Amino acid sequence: MSRSKEPGPDLFGMPKRERTVDAPLAERMRPQSFDDLTGQDEIIGKGRPLRTAIDADRLSSVILWGPPGCGKTTLAHLISRSTKAHFVSFSAVTSGVPELREIIKAAEHRLAMHAQKTILFVDEIHRFNKAQQDAFLPHVEKGTIFMIAATTENPSFEVVAPLLSRSLVAVLRPLADEALERILDRALADTERGLGAKRLFLSAEARRRLIGFANGDGRSLLMALEFVAEQAVPQPDGSKRLDDAGMEAAL
Hints:
By secondary structure, this protein is α/β, with parallel strands linked by helices. The chain is built from 14 helices and 8 strands. It has a 5-stranded parallel β-sheet with strand order 2-3-4-1-5, sandwiched between helices. Strand 2, helix 6 (97-114) and strand 3 form a beta-alpha-beta unit. It starts with 15 loop residues before the first helix and ends with a helix.
């Protein structure tokens, strides 16, 4: 009998099994396809230019600008599943120019030997200084890498002009309340990745308070939901319920 293969790491470096079982709710509920994506339809909806380029695997360098929790990293995650290019994640918080040199060297080899493109996801690009950002420029210009950068800061001020001029800037907005409601419903119903097994019920007032607390931030919504779920009152039927007063106290 053949042995089952252990799941490998995802693009963000976390083994898939660990990410599914032990990760925070916000990570577990990250959409697995564009059909699961909630919000940002004006940017990534079916038929929009960015979505069309992704579906056709013709994506060029792009800068995703938006507030925390609006879906920048999720969008990079979905692109990684959609492209035939090799996808590399690179964070300004934990990486620097020496790591970039190694990535570029591997990308050059991949392109020369296998004609495979490399997409580099640069998280929090605004944390790189101008000299560090300049290190990306020749490789983006030559097509050695295609860059997807994420930032919460205005790229007109935080990204060097030559790099900005070679990139599409996609502006992501805070998630609307309707989008947050759909995210909430999915997390409450999903028995595998979400809280469905806990049979948690929120009153209408509690839902409104939680969505207001999130203030357009999907990650904040799910983090708060995971926390308040532990404060919910058990019912005789095994379910848990949380009303507005309980939600206010928990938050």
